[in-house]
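We emphasize that the prediction below concerns an isolated chain of 71 residues; any contacts that depend on oligomerization or on bound cofactors are therefore not represented. The input was used exactly as deposited, without trimming of termini.
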Amino acid sequence: INPVSTYDETLFLFNSGLSVEQIAIKRNLTIGTIYSHFERLYRNSQIDSLASVIAISDDEIQEVRELLTKL
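Result of the prediction step, given as a token string:
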């Protein structure tokens, strides 16, 4: 029996320096599943921000902001 949740295992590996892609490979899960783990960890206040998890450039953030202002 493994007392560590799948979410905690993902967080442990991330905090150990593995990327989302590396965690997915190591755990034999999809990248989408790993991102869903971080989303749940965020909702449960186990991580403060998703920014450190999501690899997105400043230019991409600006592009999203500009698109949102047009909605």
